Structure formats: structure tokens, C-alpha cells
Amino acid sequence: MLSRDLTWADEQGIDLALFPECYLQGHSYESALTRRRALSLDDPALNALIARCASGKTTAIIGLFERRGESIYNSAVVARAGRISGVYAKMHPIERGCTPGTDFPVWALGDWCFGINICSDLRYPYTAARLARKGAGLICNPLNLMLRPHKAEKWHRPAIESLRIGAKHTKCWVMSADVVGSNADGWVSYGSTAIVDPNGVVVAKAKAYSEDVLVFDLPDERLEANSVKKAAMIAT
């Protein structure tokens, strides 16, 4: 699926593609499963996959469980031109056995600068504020709100509201990519894939409970007019 989606993004001229949390191996709250699935960033199989799937012009943000020595992180890698160019580790993991991250990296993309928060980081406004202070104009949020039905219903609207609050407080654009549908255990996700402008207005949102892709042209920050960077959020 990663190869298919990145091929499509490259063909569409997408500059930045955002994938959901733990997109690569699948999400889990169980420490034994996350440890078994986790990959180090120098893993040959991982780098071969990135080289094969991310060799076009599209920069991709891909969620995964990452191994660093004996520690496991819920991370998102930034892949460009077939290589991993950086990684963000979730500051506030709620997955058992995952270690909190410590760094707030930002990346340049043309005239834009972007950073990453992951899912439950949205509950802590300082995580977005740190990125804004480092120059980010865009904050990317991989999500995985596949939950038991009563929890999915409970958190769907607050997730969108958290995106709006983060945008208004930081004056940044905010975008998210969430999983959608149901799994074999009966858990569900309505999908909280969205794009929010710096005033907190939701300018685009994926269809509820449906696989979808949002494509949006971010405005030129210098000209405050025509768009120059095209971003895609994949809900899968």
C-alpha cells in the first residue's frame, strides 16, 4: 500500500504526503507486539522499502514503531528521494513499552518549514508551540484513532477540536491523517483526517468512516496568495 500510495502522490505532483500513525507495521497498545514489530532506522529491509517506495519527488511522513537499542518509540520518519532524512518520536506515547521522545525537529520544504506531533501529543499544546517557535508554519499530525466503539465515538470530535486549538494557538497550518474503518477485534475509527488553517477553520475533512485522500495547496507564505506546495493526507 505504501508503494501504491506514494506512486499516486508522485504522479499527482504532491510535495508532502502524510500517512497515519504506525502506518508501516500497524498500531498496537501491547508492548510485546510493538517490540516484535519495531525496526531500527538502519534496518536493511526498512531502507530498501523506503528506497523503493519514496524515490520520487514526494516527501513522505510515515508512522512506525522504531527500535533504538533496547528502547521502542512510536515514531514518524520523513522520507525524501528514497532516503530517511529524519525522525520524530512521540512525546506522549500511551502505548505500553514505548519511550517518550525528547526532540522537536523541523524540516524545510521549499519556502515552508514543518514539524510533527503524533496523536496523543495533541492533548499537550506545548508540543505544537515548540514547533512553531522553531519556525514551523505547518504541523503534521499522524493519528490512529482505531478504538473500541464507545471510545471512538467519544474522541472523534475532540480530536478535530484539538487540531483547531493547535492551529489557533500557534497560527500554523495543521493537518492530520487518521486510519478509518474497523478491525477484526471490532474496534472502529471514524477517521479524523483534516486540514485546518491558522485561524482554526477546518478547510477540508475526509468523509467519515470512508477511505479518503485530501489534497490541498498551501498558500505561499511570502506572497500570501497563490499556492506553491501541495500536501496530501491519506486516510486508510
Index terms:
236 residues; alpha/beta; Nitrilase/N-carbamoyl-D-aminoacid amidohydrolase; six-stranded mixed beta sheet; 14 strands; 33% strand
Order of helices and strands: HEHHEEEEEHEHEEEEEEE
Question: What is the top-level CATH class?
Answer: Alpha Beta
Shape field: globular
What's the architecture in CATH terms? 4-Layer Sandwich
- Give the amount of beta strand, in percent: 25-35%
Instruction: Give the tally of structural domains.
Output: 1
Helical residue percent? 10-25%
CATH topology assignment: Nitrilase/N-carbamoyl-D-aminoacid amidohydrolase
Strand order of the largest sheet: 4-3-2-1-14-13
Question: Mind describing the biggest β-sheet?
Answer: 6 strands, mixed
Average pLDDT for all residues: 91
Structural class per helix/strand content?
Answer: alpha/beta
Domain CN hydrolase: 1-220
Protein name: Putative amidohydrolase
Organism: Rhizobium leucaenae
GO molecular function: hydrolase activity, acting on carbon-nitrogen (but not peptide) bonds, in linear amides
Describe this structure in words.
- With about 240 residues, the protein is of the alpha/beta class.
- The protein has a single domain, classed as Carbon-nitrogen hydrolase (Nitrilase/N-carbamoyl-D-aminoacid amidohydrolase).
- The chain is built from five helices and 14 strands.
- It has helices at about 1-10, 30-35, 45-55, 125-135, 150-170; strands at about 15-20, 60-70, 70-80, 85-90, 105-110, 110-115, 140, 175, 180, 190, 195, 200-205, 210-220, 225-235.
- The protein has a six-stranded mixed sheet. A six-stranded mixed sheet has the order 5-6-7-8-11-12, covered by helices on one side.
- Strand 13 and strand 14 form a beta hairpin.
- Helix 4 (about 125-135) runs parallel beside helix 5.
- The chain is globular, with a radius of gyration of 16 Å.
- About 45% of the residues are buried.
